[in-house]
Design brief:
Blueprint lengths: L1 E12 H5 L6 H4 L16 E5 L9 E5 L7 H6 L4 E10 L15 E3 L2 E9 L8 H6 L4 H6 L5 H14 L4 H15 L3 E8 L4 E5 L5 E4 L3 E5 L10 E2 L4 E6 L2 E6 L2
Antiparallel strand pairs: 1-4, 1-10, 2-3, 2-4, 5-6, 6-7, 7-8, 8-12, 9-10, 9-11, 12-13
Length: 250
């Protein structure tokens, strides 16, 4: 339903990853090559990045418009350098609003989160959305700004972390909980605290690329380099600047 990407490495401009490559995220917004669910990601886009010399919380830029239509972002992206960032273009799930609050990445504290996928039986008084919302802590419920499945799932992940779970286990528990409630769901997550990136494949594509300067995790490659590796479904990826591991979702 969306395309998303996380970068972790030597500081680079946002445009060098998100705009300049031949099959960049901006191009994926209207011409994705590996997207099986939906074709046009025109329902908004967002970017979150870290500037640790300024503050611990990430900065964020979101708009409920197609990425290719935002000339302001195209202008400033070449002037912003970061060593960790997450970006997403959105194809909204049916019935969910299109506005800034419903646009990834979501953030709270030091965390950034994005979700590529959907939950088919989300809506309705007996839907998965109502059941999962009842599980949110008061803190997460109060912090929820929009009305997406993605932000609610993010809240559940943060609740598990607050209760003492490791981020990888928190993500795994939320995925398994949702799968147990839903007749069908796709749950590709991206979560980062600016130091480590955790990603999942659960129903949609994911690729990784690692070299001497950076680790990149993306819904699909932004060029034709043979360095990209396709991640098997039902996998969990953990990446730092110096390491990348792929295993099963716990």
């Amino acid at each position: 339903m969306c395309r998303q990407i996380a970068y972790l490495g030597e500081p680079v401009t946002l445009s060098s990853v998100l705009i300049d490559p031949e099959h960049s995220l901006r191009r994926q917004a209207y011409a994705p090559r590996h997207q099986a669910h939906g074709r046009i990601n025109a329902d908004g886009f967002g970017v979150g990045w870290y500037a640790p010399d300024v503050r611990s919380e990430p900065a964020r830029y979101r708009k409920p418009i197609p990425m290719w239509n935002d000339q302001t972002f195209a202008n400033i992206a070449g002037a912003i350098r970061a060593s960790t960032f997450v970006a997403s273009v959105r194809n909204a799930s049916p019935g969910l609003p299109i506005n800034e609050a419903c646009t990834a990445p979501y953030t709270r504290g030091q965390w950034l989160f994005a979700h590529n996928g959907g939950i088919v039986d989300w809506h309705g008084p007996t839907g998965v959305g109502v059941a999962l919302r009842r599980r949110l802590s008061d803190t997460s419920l109060a912090a929820t700004e929009g009305a997406t499945d993605s932000e609610l799932l993010f809240g559940l992940v943060l609740d598990a972390i607050t209760e003492g779970a490791q981020p990888t286990d928190a993500i795994g528990s939320v995925i398994r909980l949702t799968q147990g409630m839903s007749r069908g769901c796709r749950l590709n997550f991206l979560l980062t605290d600016g130091i480590t990136v955790i990603a999942t494949t659960s129903g949609d594509t994911l690729f990784t690329r690692r070299d001497d300067t950076a680790v990149i995790i993306a819904s699909e490659p932004f060029d034709d380099s043979p360095a990209w590796q396709c991640v098997p479904d039902d996998s969990l990826v953990v990446a730092s600047r110096n390491d990348l591991t792929v295993g099963a979702i716990p």
